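Batch 3, record 17
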Amino acid sequence: MSYSIPRVTPYLLYEDLEGALSWLANAFGFRERLRHAAPDGRLMHAEMSVGEEGVIMMGCPAPPYRNPKHLGQHTQNVYVRVDEDLGKRFDRAVQAGAVVLEEPADQPYGDRRFGVEDPEGHRWYFAQSIADHR
Amino acid sequence: MTVIHKVNRRPLSDFVDFLWLSAGYVQPHAAERVLPTGNMSLILDLDEHGKVPDALSGARTRSFVLDTSTPLSLIGVVFKPGGGFPFVAGPAAELQDLSIPLDAIWGRGAQVLRERVLEARTARGRLQRLEQFLFQLALRRPQRHPAVAYALKTLRSPGSNVADVTERTGLSARRFIELFRREVGLTPKMFSRLSRFRAVVSTLQPHAAVDWTTIALDCGYYDQAHFIHDFREFAGMSPSAYLRHRTAGPNHVRVTD
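Prediction for the assembled complex:
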């Protein structure tokens, strides 16, 4: 069912969780699957589906939390494996306003990969096996 | 806490927008007015001796008052526009503005659903049980009439009008209205008016200054008078009363009297 939680799940923190949900849907094609709201309506937690089995969880901590953009540095990357359309995904992300870290390029270890930063400064790498791609 | 689960899996996602669960919903006010969405919906009370009957509601064109004087624990389904018809026997139009006890529609199935949902102890588990139940019903893959599918998509954009849409379906006005009502539960005209009203409600941002004239025109109203007339009819209050008494959920408004 669509509620399965993988053994390991990235849990990203955003200052504007509502904004992140719509940006990630638009730029990366992730699909919102769950949100938890506090009684005052504040969004506390959300989850998005990534492909068939992938999940990311997201939270919205109270200040003084600062996202990577406001902190001035990123502290981790998220690496997403896809089966197809790497180039199209790159174009879509750039159109949505993603900051390009790396254009799509073949990597010696066997993946073709691009890297982008989202509006809050989290870094995302999308990769496809070169064997599938050629 | 309220948990909202977006349905992403086809074919259920063709018909269901999201499932929600509210555990111990407590508000500082004794009652709130719930605005109409034009969508069909389903609700189950999670309390053993709850006061809200398990029911399926047809498309609403009027607001209703929810008693919030005691904590509520509910689980529910919001169908997509025109998405409720596969789950009821008979035309959706017969349910307009009505709430029908679930057992009157699904017979013993209503009790089976209730037991299955309550068997799970967690919010996730309960939402999952409800989704599975609906999924099985959706597997019969009921087909939307192409004219209705086209109209549902088109009538939601601000510049659309019913006469143009009817003409483009190639059907007679009478036949088109009949098909549309059977699946959506409203006339195309009412659906179009409700869509404009919903566009206004979803445009309003909390704490932002509101320019009603601009909003009315952007959302497809002919002028501000038409807008205010429709708003009063659907919301049961003026736009400014709405802004004053709106709760954190844009669809729920504090009742003060």
